[in-house]
Design a protein that fits this description.
The strands form six sheets. Strands 2-3-6-5-4 form a five-stranded mixed β-sheet, covered by helices on one side. Strands 8-19-20-9-21 form a five-stranded antiparallel β-sheet. The chain has a four-stranded antiparallel β-sheet with strand order 10-15-11-14, sandwiched between helices. It is globular and about 75 Å long. Among the domains are: 90 residues, no CATH class; 43 residues, no CATH class. The chain has 479 residues and is of the alpha+beta class. The chain is built from 13 helices and 21 strands. The mean pLDDT is 89. Strand 12 and strand 13 form a beta hairpin.
Length: 479
Protein backbone atom coordinates (compact mmCIF):
# COMPACT_ATOMS: atom_id res chain seq x y z
CA UNK A 1 0.00 0.00 0.00
CA UNK A 2 1.21 3.51 -0.77
CA UNK A 3 1.87 5.96 2.04
CA UNK A 4 0.61 9.17 0.44
CA UNK A 5 -3.06 8.43 0.90
CA UNK A 6 -5.39 10.69 2.84
CA UNK A 7 -6.17 9.63 6.40
CA UNK A 8 -9.67 10.49 7.55
CA UNK A 9 -10.22 11.36 11.21
CA UNK A 10 -12.03 13.82 13.43
CA UNK A 11 -11.20 17.40 12.50
CA UNK A 12 -12.74 20.59 13.94
CA UNK A 13 -14.18 22.99 11.38
CA UNK A 14 -13.31 26.18 13.26
CA UNK A 15 -12.48 29.33 11.35
CA UNK A 16 -14.71 28.63 8.32
CA UNK A 17 -17.40 31.22 7.70
CA UNK A 18 -21.06 30.20 7.65
CA UNK A 19 -23.11 30.91 4.54
CA UNK A 20 -25.85 33.56 4.72
CA UNK A 21 -27.29 33.86 1.22
CA UNK A 22 -29.61 36.51 -0.15
CA UNK A 23 -32.86 35.08 -1.53
CA UNK A 24 -34.29 36.92 -4.54
CA UNK A 25 -37.29 36.16 -6.74
CA UNK A 26 -36.24 35.05 -10.21
CA UNK A 27 -37.83 37.41 -12.74
CA UNK A 28 -36.74 36.68 -16.35
CA UNK A 29 -37.61 40.28 -17.24
CA UNK A 30 -35.06 41.55 -14.70
CA UNK A 31 -31.50 41.04 -16.01
CA UNK A 32 -29.25 38.90 -13.85
CA UNK A 33 -26.46 41.47 -14.25
CA UNK A 34 -28.55 44.02 -12.36
CA UNK A 35 -29.05 41.59 -9.48
CA UNK A 36 -25.33 40.90 -9.36
CA UNK A 37 -24.54 44.61 -9.23
CA UNK A 38 -27.01 45.29 -6.39
CA UNK A 39 -26.23 42.15 -4.35
CA UNK A 40 -24.57 43.03 -1.04
CA UNK A 41 -22.94 39.69 -0.37
CA UNK A 42 -21.13 37.01 -2.33
CA UNK A 43 -23.97 34.45 -2.47
CA UNK A 44 -27.22 34.98 -4.37
CA UNK A 45 -29.93 32.33 -4.30
CA UNK A 46 -32.60 32.81 -6.94
CA UNK A 47 -36.11 31.53 -6.26
CA UNK A 48 -38.11 30.44 -9.26
CA UNK A 49 -38.70 27.56 -11.64
CA UNK A 50 -36.05 25.53 -13.43
CA UNK A 51 -37.48 26.56 -16.79
CA UNK A 52 -37.32 30.27 -15.95
CA UNK A 53 -33.57 30.14 -15.31
CA UNK A 54 -32.58 29.63 -18.94
CA UNK A 55 -29.08 29.41 -20.33
CA UNK A 56 -29.61 32.81 -21.99
CA UNK A 57 -30.58 34.29 -18.62
CA UNK A 58 -27.42 32.94 -16.98
CA UNK A 59 -25.13 34.10 -19.80
CA UNK A 60 -26.62 37.62 -19.98
CA UNK A 61 -24.09 39.08 -17.46
CA UNK A 62 -21.24 38.24 -19.86
CA UNK A 63 -22.46 41.04 -22.13
CA UNK A 64 -22.43 43.49 -19.23
CA UNK A 65 -18.93 43.37 -17.78
CA UNK A 66 -19.06 40.06 -15.92
CA UNK A 67 -17.13 36.85 -16.45
CA UNK A 68 -17.89 33.32 -15.30
CA UNK A 69 -15.09 32.14 -13.07
CA UNK A 70 -13.89 28.63 -13.73
CA UNK A 71 -15.99 26.17 -15.69
CA UNK A 72 -19.76 26.43 -15.93
CA UNK A 73 -22.45 23.74 -15.90
CA UNK A 74 -25.89 24.94 -16.88
CA UNK A 75 -27.53 21.71 -15.74
CA UNK A 76 -26.97 22.64 -12.09
CA UNK A 77 -28.11 26.27 -12.52
CA UNK A 78 -25.10 27.55 -10.65
CA UNK A 79 -22.19 29.78 -11.61
CA UNK A 80 -19.60 32.09 -10.06
CA UNK A 81 -19.62 35.57 -11.64
CA UNK A 82 -16.63 37.88 -11.44
CA UNK A 83 -16.49 41.59 -12.28
CA UNK A 84 -12.95 42.83 -12.89
CA UNK A 85 -13.95 46.49 -12.98
CA UNK A 86 -13.26 48.31 -9.67
CA UNK A 87 -14.56 47.63 -7.17
CA UNK A 88 -14.04 43.98 -8.09
CA UNK A 89 -16.81 41.66 -7.06
CA UNK A 90 -17.37 37.91 -7.03
CA UNK A 91 -20.89 36.43 -6.63
CA UNK A 92 -22.01 32.81 -6.58
CA UNK A 93 -25.49 32.32 -8.02
CA UNK A 94 -27.65 29.24 -7.40
CA UNK A 95 -31.23 28.20 -8.02
CA UNK A 96 -32.86 27.45 -4.67
CA UNK A 97 -35.45 25.04 -6.07
CA UNK A 98 -32.95 22.87 -7.97
CA UNK A 99 -33.08 19.21 -7.00
CA UNK A 100 -29.44 19.36 -5.85
CA UNK A 101 -29.82 22.62 -3.96
CA UNK A 102 -31.06 23.36 -0.46
CA UNK A 103 -34.84 23.46 -0.89
CA UNK A 104 -35.95 21.41 -3.91
CA UNK A 105 -39.24 22.71 -5.25
CA UNK A 106 -39.18 25.96 -3.24
CA UNK A 107 -39.76 28.82 -5.70
CA UNK A 108 -40.77 31.56 -3.25
CA UNK A 109 -38.09 33.83 -1.78
CA UNK A 110 -40.03 34.52 1.41
CA UNK A 111 -40.56 30.83 2.09
CA UNK A 112 -36.89 30.12 1.33
CA UNK A 113 -35.75 32.82 3.78
CA UNK A 114 -37.90 31.41 6.60
CA UNK A 115 -36.83 27.85 5.78
CA UNK A 116 -33.19 28.92 5.92
CA UNK A 117 -33.75 30.62 9.27
CA UNK A 118 -35.41 27.46 10.64
CA UNK A 119 -32.62 25.27 9.30
CA UNK A 120 -29.83 27.49 10.64
CA UNK A 121 -31.44 27.59 14.10
CA UNK A 122 -31.15 23.80 14.37
CA UNK A 123 -27.71 23.44 12.79
CA UNK A 124 -24.75 22.80 15.17
CA UNK A 125 -23.19 26.15 16.02
CA UNK A 126 -19.61 24.90 15.73
CA UNK A 127 -20.03 23.58 12.17
CA UNK A 128 -20.17 25.99 9.21
CA UNK A 129 -23.02 26.02 6.72
CA UNK A 130 -21.37 26.04 3.30
CA UNK A 131 -22.54 26.74 -0.24
CA UNK A 132 -24.01 23.32 -0.99
CA UNK A 133 -25.66 20.53 1.01
CA UNK A 134 -22.80 18.18 0.06
CA UNK A 135 -20.06 20.55 1.23
CA UNK A 136 -21.95 21.24 4.45
CA UNK A 137 -22.44 17.52 5.04
CA UNK A 138 -18.73 16.86 4.58
CA UNK A 139 -17.89 19.59 7.11
CA UNK A 140 -20.24 17.93 9.59
CA UNK A 141 -18.71 14.55 8.81
CA UNK A 142 -15.18 15.77 9.57
CA UNK A 143 -16.50 16.90 12.98
CA UNK A 144 -18.31 13.64 13.70
CA UNK A 145 -15.89 10.83 12.95
CA UNK A 146 -15.58 8.54 15.97
CA UNK A 147 -13.10 9.95 18.48
CA UNK A 148 -9.69 8.34 18.49
CA UNK A 149 -10.20 6.51 15.18
CA UNK A 150 -8.65 7.17 11.79
CA UNK A 151 -9.66 5.70 8.47
CA UNK A 152 -7.19 5.37 5.59
CA UNK A 153 -8.40 6.19 2.11
CA UNK A 154 -8.20 3.45 -0.49
CA UNK A 155 -5.36 3.14 -3.00
CA UNK A 156 -6.43 5.02 -6.13
CA UNK A 157 -6.75 1.97 -8.36
CA UNK A 158 -8.88 0.06 -5.86
CA UNK A 159 -11.04 3.13 -5.18
CA UNK A 160 -11.76 3.49 -8.89
CA UNK A 161 -12.56 -0.20 -9.21
CA UNK A 162 -14.90 -0.31 -6.24
CA UNK A 163 -16.70 2.75 -7.53
CA UNK A 164 -17.11 1.03 -10.91
CA UNK A 165 -18.55 -2.06 -9.22
CA UNK A 166 -21.03 -0.07 -7.09
CA UNK A 167 -24.20 1.02 -8.87
CA UNK A 168 -26.50 3.24 -6.88
CA UNK A 169 -30.15 2.45 -7.59
CA UNK A 170 -31.74 -0.71 -8.85
CA UNK A 171 -34.13 0.23 -11.66
CA UNK A 172 -35.89 -2.78 -13.13
CA UNK A 173 -39.24 -3.24 -14.84
CA UNK A 174 -40.66 -6.64 -13.93
CA UNK A 175 -43.99 -6.34 -15.77
CA UNK A 176 -43.42 -3.97 -18.64
CA UNK A 177 -47.03 -3.93 -19.81
CA UNK A 178 -47.91 -2.04 -16.62
CA UNK A 179 -45.09 0.49 -17.00
CA UNK A 180 -45.62 3.66 -19.01
CA UNK A 181 -43.17 2.99 -21.86
CA UNK A 182 -43.24 6.58 -23.10
CA UNK A 183 -40.91 7.51 -20.26
CA UNK A 184 -39.15 5.19 -17.86
CA UNK A 185 -39.20 8.00 -15.32
CA UNK A 186 -42.99 7.89 -15.00
CA UNK A 187 -44.38 5.72 -12.23
CA UNK A 188 -46.21 2.52 -13.17
CA UNK A 189 -49.93 3.07 -13.43
CA UNK A 190 -52.57 1.46 -11.22
CA UNK A 191 -50.00 0.11 -8.78
CA UNK A 192 -49.38 0.24 -5.05
CA UNK A 193 -46.04 1.74 -4.13
CA UNK A 194 -43.88 0.90 -1.13
CA UNK A 195 -40.71 2.88 -0.51
CA UNK A 196 -38.15 3.09 2.26
CA UNK A 197 -38.22 5.76 4.95
CA UNK A 198 -34.99 7.70 4.41
CA UNK A 199 -33.20 4.52 3.46
CA UNK A 200 -29.63 5.84 3.31
CA UNK A 201 -29.87 7.34 6.79
CA UNK A 202 -30.92 3.97 8.18
CA UNK A 203 -28.08 2.15 6.41
CA UNK A 204 -25.45 4.53 7.88
CA UNK A 205 -25.96 3.11 11.37
CA UNK A 206 -25.40 -0.57 10.52
CA UNK A 207 -22.26 -2.39 11.68
CA UNK A 208 -21.44 -3.57 8.15
CA UNK A 209 -19.01 -0.90 6.90
CA UNK A 210 -15.49 -1.67 5.61
CA UNK A 211 -12.81 0.10 7.62
CA UNK A 212 -9.03 -0.15 7.83
CA UNK A 213 -6.71 -1.40 5.12
CA UNK A 214 -8.07 -3.67 2.39
CA UNK A 215 -6.60 -7.15 2.24
CA UNK A 216 -6.86 -9.86 -0.37
CA UNK A 217 -9.58 -12.33 0.54
CA UNK A 218 -9.00 -16.07 0.43
CA UNK A 219 -12.70 -16.75 0.03
CA UNK A 220 -16.10 -15.33 0.86
CA UNK A 221 -17.48 -15.25 4.38
CA UNK A 222 -20.99 -13.81 4.88
CA UNK A 223 -21.13 -10.45 6.67
CA UNK A 224 -17.41 -9.74 6.15
CA UNK A 225 -17.31 -6.35 4.36
CA UNK A 226 -15.69 -6.32 0.98
CA UNK A 227 -16.01 -6.83 -2.78
CA UNK A 228 -15.65 -10.28 -4.25
CA UNK A 229 -14.97 -11.56 -7.78
CA UNK A 230 -17.01 -14.75 -8.00
CA UNK A 231 -18.74 -17.03 -10.48
CA UNK A 232 -22.27 -17.67 -9.27
CA UNK A 233 -24.91 -20.22 -10.15
CA UNK A 234 -28.60 -19.46 -9.72
CA UNK A 235 -30.54 -22.48 -8.39
CA UNK A 236 -32.40 -24.56 -10.95
CA UNK A 237 -35.60 -24.07 -8.96
CA UNK A 238 -35.26 -20.29 -8.62
CA UNK A 239 -38.53 -18.47 -9.40
CA UNK A 240 -38.07 -14.99 -7.98
CA UNK A 241 -36.29 -11.67 -8.64
CA UNK A 242 -32.56 -11.47 -9.28
CA UNK A 243 -30.25 -10.63 -6.39
CA UNK A 244 -26.84 -9.81 -7.90
CA UNK A 245 -26.14 -6.82 -10.20
CA UNK A 246 -23.98 -7.31 -13.29
CA UNK A 247 -23.08 -5.05 -16.21
CA UNK A 248 -24.51 -6.32 -19.49
CA UNK A 249 -24.67 -5.00 -23.03
CA UNK A 250 -27.84 -3.12 -23.87
CA UNK A 251 -27.69 -3.68 -27.60
CA UNK A 252 -26.48 -0.12 -28.20
CA UNK A 253 -22.85 -0.05 -29.29
CA UNK A 254 -20.55 0.57 -26.35
CA UNK A 255 -23.35 1.00 -23.80
CA UNK A 256 -23.87 -1.37 -20.90
CA UNK A 257 -26.38 -1.27 -18.06
CA UNK A 258 -26.85 -2.95 -14.71
CA UNK A 259 -29.04 -6.05 -14.84
CA UNK A 260 -30.19 -8.56 -12.20
CA UNK A 261 -30.10 -12.11 -13.63
CA UNK A 262 -32.81 -14.42 -12.36
CA UNK A 263 -32.90 -17.26 -14.92
CA UNK A 264 -32.88 -20.65 -13.15
CA UNK A 265 -29.56 -22.42 -13.53
CA UNK A 266 -27.74 -19.46 -15.07
CA UNK A 267 -24.02 -19.19 -14.31
CA UNK A 268 -22.34 -15.78 -14.44
CA UNK A 269 -19.31 -13.93 -13.09
CA UNK A 270 -19.43 -10.63 -11.22
CA UNK A 271 -17.70 -8.40 -8.71
CA UNK A 272 -20.23 -8.26 -5.86
CA UNK A 273 -20.45 -6.23 -2.66
CA UNK A 274 -20.83 -8.21 0.55
CA UNK A 275 -24.45 -7.30 1.44
CA UNK A 276 -25.94 -8.64 -1.78
CA UNK A 277 -23.65 -11.66 -1.90
CA UNK A 278 -24.56 -12.47 1.70
CA UNK A 279 -28.24 -12.22 0.81
CA UNK A 280 -27.88 -14.59 -2.16
CA UNK A 281 -25.69 -17.14 -0.37
CA UNK A 282 -27.09 -17.03 3.15
CA UNK A 283 -29.98 -14.59 3.56
CA UNK A 284 -32.42 -16.29 1.18
CA UNK A 285 -32.71 -19.21 3.57
CA UNK A 286 -34.94 -17.23 5.93
CA UNK A 287 -37.42 -16.91 3.07
CA UNK A 288 -37.38 -20.69 2.53
CA UNK A 289 -35.73 -20.13 -0.83
CA UNK A 290 -32.79 -22.12 -2.25
CA UNK A 291 -29.38 -20.57 -1.72
CA UNK A 292 -27.34 -19.34 -4.67
CA UNK A 293 -23.97 -21.03 -5.10
CA UNK A 294 -20.45 -19.67 -5.52
CA UNK A 295 -18.99 -21.94 -8.22
CA UNK A 296 -15.57 -20.26 -8.25
CA UNK A 297 -13.87 -17.65 -6.09
CA UNK A 298 -11.47 -15.63 -8.25
CA UNK A 299 -10.37 -12.67 -6.17
CA UNK A 300 -11.59 -10.19 -3.61
CA UNK A 301 -10.83 -7.55 -1.03
CA UNK A 302 -12.13 -7.68 2.50
CA UNK A 303 -11.97 -5.32 5.48
CA UNK A 304 -12.60 -5.08 9.15
CA UNK A 305 -16.07 -3.80 9.89
CA UNK A 306 -17.29 -0.81 11.84
CA UNK A 307 -19.69 2.14 11.92
CA UNK A 308 -17.72 5.23 10.83
CA UNK A 309 -20.81 7.22 9.82
CA UNK A 310 -23.10 6.51 12.76
CA UNK A 311 -22.48 9.73 14.75
CA UNK A 312 -22.81 11.89 11.65
CA UNK A 313 -26.00 10.22 10.49
CA UNK A 314 -27.56 10.28 13.95
CA UNK A 315 -26.95 14.03 14.21
CA UNK A 316 -28.85 14.58 10.97
CA UNK A 317 -31.61 12.12 11.85
CA UNK A 318 -32.27 13.83 15.17
CA UNK A 319 -32.19 17.27 13.55
CA UNK A 320 -34.69 16.27 10.90
CA UNK A 321 -36.89 14.64 13.52
CA UNK A 322 -37.06 17.89 15.51
CA UNK A 323 -38.02 19.78 12.37
CA UNK A 324 -40.66 17.22 11.48
CA UNK A 325 -42.19 17.60 14.94
CA UNK A 326 -42.81 21.26 14.14
CA UNK A 327 -44.34 20.32 10.79
CA UNK A 328 -46.70 17.91 12.55
CA UNK A 329 -47.49 20.26 15.43
CA UNK A 330 -51.10 21.43 15.79
CA UNK A 331 -49.86 24.69 17.27
CA UNK A 332 -47.70 25.67 14.30
CA UNK A 333 -49.02 28.10 11.72
CA UNK A 334 -49.26 27.00 8.06
CA UNK A 335 -46.32 29.27 7.19
CA UNK A 336 -44.21 27.76 9.96
CA UNK A 337 -45.06 24.24 8.84
CA UNK A 338 -44.08 25.09 5.28
CA UNK A 339 -40.77 26.60 6.37
CA UNK A 340 -39.87 23.64 8.55
CA UNK A 341 -40.92 21.16 5.87
CA UNK A 342 -38.37 22.69 3.51
CA UNK A 343 -35.81 22.89 6.34
CA UNK A 344 -36.28 19.17 6.98
CA UNK A 345 -35.83 18.56 3.25
CA UNK A 346 -32.51 20.41 3.44
CA UNK A 347 -31.27 17.97 6.09
CA UNK A 348 -32.22 15.07 3.84
CA UNK A 349 -30.34 16.78 1.00
CA UNK A 350 -27.25 17.03 3.18
CA UNK A 351 -27.12 13.33 4.01
CA UNK A 352 -27.97 12.01 0.55
CA UNK A 353 -25.70 14.37 -1.38
CA UNK A 354 -22.77 13.90 0.99
CA UNK A 355 -22.93 10.16 0.37
CA UNK A 356 -22.85 10.90 -3.35
CA UNK A 357 -19.89 13.23 -2.86
CA UNK A 358 -17.75 10.66 -1.03
CA UNK A 359 -18.55 8.21 -3.82
CA UNK A 360 -17.45 10.42 -6.74
CA UNK A 361 -14.90 12.93 -5.43
CA UNK A 362 -15.43 14.98 -8.57
CA UNK A 363 -17.58 17.72 -10.01
CA UNK A 364 -19.47 17.81 -13.27
CA UNK A 365 -18.62 20.75 -15.50
CA UNK A 366 -19.05 21.66 -19.18
CA UNK A 367 -16.45 21.78 -21.92
CA UNK A 368 -16.54 22.59 -25.62
CA UNK A 369 -15.92 19.86 -28.22
CA UNK A 370 -15.56 21.00 -31.82
CA UNK A 371 -17.48 19.40 -34.67
CA UNK A 372 -14.25 17.80 -35.88
CA UNK A 373 -13.65 16.08 -32.53
CA UNK A 374 -17.21 15.32 -31.46
CA UNK A 375 -17.41 11.94 -33.18
CA UNK A 376 -14.29 10.78 -31.31
CA UNK A 377 -15.65 12.12 -27.99
CA UNK A 378 -18.98 10.40 -28.55
CA UNK A 379 -17.27 7.08 -29.30
CA UNK A 380 -15.14 7.38 -26.14
CA UNK A 381 -18.06 8.49 -23.95
CA UNK A 382 -21.12 6.55 -25.15
CA UNK A 383 -23.07 6.89 -21.92
CA UNK A 384 -22.50 10.64 -21.63
CA UNK A 385 -23.32 11.11 -25.31
CA UNK A 386 -26.79 9.64 -24.76
CA UNK A 387 -27.59 11.98 -21.89
CA UNK A 388 -29.42 15.29 -21.87
CA UNK A 389 -26.30 17.32 -21.05
CA UNK A 390 -24.98 17.50 -24.62
CA UNK A 391 -25.89 20.84 -26.22
CA UNK A 392 -25.39 21.86 -29.84
CA UNK A 393 -23.67 25.26 -30.09
CA UNK A 394 -21.95 27.16 -32.87
CA UNK A 395 -18.98 25.19 -34.13
CA UNK A 396 -19.52 22.13 -31.96
CA UNK A 397 -21.07 20.91 -28.71
CA UNK A 398 -21.05 21.68 -25.01
CA UNK A 399 -20.55 18.34 -23.29
CA UNK A 400 -20.16 17.20 -19.67
CA UNK A 401 -16.73 16.67 -18.18
CA UNK A 402 -15.55 15.89 -14.67
CA UNK A 403 -12.85 17.49 -12.53
CA UNK A 404 -11.40 16.13 -9.32
CA UNK A 405 -12.37 17.56 -5.94
CA UNK A 406 -9.03 18.52 -4.41
CA UNK A 407 -10.46 20.74 -1.69
CA UNK A 408 -9.42 20.26 1.96
CA UNK A 409 -12.96 19.04 2.70
CA UNK A 410 -12.87 16.22 0.15
CA UNK A 411 -13.57 12.72 1.44
CA UNK A 412 -13.20 10.00 -1.18
CA UNK A 413 -14.34 6.74 0.41
CA UNK A 414 -16.30 4.87 -2.27
CA UNK A 415 -16.19 1.65 -0.24
CA UNK A 416 -18.43 3.41 2.32
CA UNK A 417 -20.89 4.85 -0.18
CA UNK A 418 -20.81 1.61 -2.20
CA UNK A 419 -21.69 -0.30 0.97
CA UNK A 420 -24.64 2.02 1.62
CA UNK A 421 -25.87 1.48 -1.94
CA UNK A 422 -25.49 -2.30 -1.66
CA UNK A 423 -27.14 -2.46 1.77
CA UNK A 424 -30.09 -0.48 0.42
CA UNK A 425 -30.42 -2.66 -2.69
CA UNK A 426 -30.22 -5.80 -0.55
CA UNK A 427 -32.89 -4.43 1.81
CA UNK A 428 -35.26 -3.75 -1.09
CA UNK A 429 -34.53 -7.18 -2.56
CA UNK A 430 -35.50 -8.71 0.77
CA UNK A 431 -38.81 -6.86 0.58
CA UNK A 432 -39.34 -8.24 -2.90
CA UNK A 433 -38.63 -11.78 -1.65
CA UNK A 434 -41.52 -11.39 0.82
CA UNK A 435 -43.91 -10.87 -2.11
CA UNK A 436 -45.41 -13.17 -4.70
CA UNK A 437 -43.18 -12.38 -7.70
CA UNK A 438 -46.16 -12.37 -10.05
CA UNK A 439 -47.50 -9.29 -8.22
CA UNK A 440 -44.31 -7.22 -8.59
CA UNK A 441 -44.29 -4.59 -11.32
CA UNK A 442 -41.15 -2.56 -10.86
CA UNK A 443 -38.22 -1.92 -8.51
CA UNK A 444 -37.02 1.68 -8.64
CA UNK A 445 -34.37 2.61 -6.09
CA UNK A 446 -35.85 2.05 -2.65
CA UNK A 447 -39.38 1.68 -4.06
CA UNK A 448 -41.35 -1.42 -5.00
CA UNK A 449 -44.48 -1.27 -7.16
CA UNK A 450 -47.05 -4.02 -6.76
CA UNK A 451 -50.43 -4.94 -8.19
CA UNK A 452 -51.77 -5.77 -4.72
CA UNK A 453 -51.32 -4.76 -1.09
CA UNK A 454 -48.37 -6.59 0.47
CA UNK A 455 -49.30 -7.51 4.04
CA UNK A 456 -45.77 -8.51 5.01
CA UNK A 457 -44.44 -5.14 3.89
CA UNK A 458 -47.23 -3.41 5.80
CA UNK A 459 -46.11 -5.26 8.95
CA UNK A 460 -42.52 -4.12 8.45
CA UNK A 461 -43.70 -0.58 7.83
CA UNK A 462 -45.52 -0.51 11.16
CA UNK A 463 -42.36 -1.30 13.16
CA UNK A 464 -41.35 1.42 15.62
CA UNK A 465 -38.17 2.28 17.46
CA UNK A 466 -37.80 2.53 21.25
CA UNK A 467 -39.16 6.09 21.18
CA UNK A 468 -42.27 4.89 19.38
CA UNK A 469 -41.39 6.46 16.03
CA UNK A 470 -41.76 4.56 12.78
CA UNK A 471 -38.39 3.05 11.93
CA UNK A 472 -36.21 4.46 9.21
CA UNK A 473 -35.25 2.08 6.45
CA UNK A 474 -38.59 0.23 6.56
CA UNK A 475 -41.22 0.26 3.80
CA UNK A 476 -44.22 2.57 3.81
CA UNK A 477 -47.20 2.26 1.56
CA UNK A 478 -47.66 5.42 -0.51
CA UNK A 479 -50.69 4.59 -2.62
Amino acid sequence: MTDNRKVISRRPMTGIATLWPEFIELDPARPLSSLLAKNNGDKLFLCGSLDAMTREYMLEPLDNGWEIEGTFVFKHRTAIYYNRMPPTKRVTVKLTSHRESWFPGCEDAGVAFHAWTAFASEWPKDVPILSTPAATGKALLWENFPKGQSFPALPDDLARSIRAWSPQHRIQALQRYLVDLESEGIEPKDCIQYDGRWMYAAMCGLDRFPIGEPRHAEGFTPYVPGWYDVTIRIPETWAHVGLIPILEDTGTAGVRAWRYPSEPGRVFRAWVAEPELTLAIEGVKKFDLPAWEIMDFHDGYCFEKGRPLVNWAQTLIEMRHRMQEVVDSYGATPDTRTAYRFAAAAVRQILNHTIGAIHKNEYQRETFISDDNFRIWRRENPRLAQGEDVLRVEGGYMVPCFVADNSPLSIFMPHWSGTIYSLARARVAEWALLCDPSTLVKIHGDAIYSTIEQLELDKLGDQRDKEGDLRLGQPRRKS
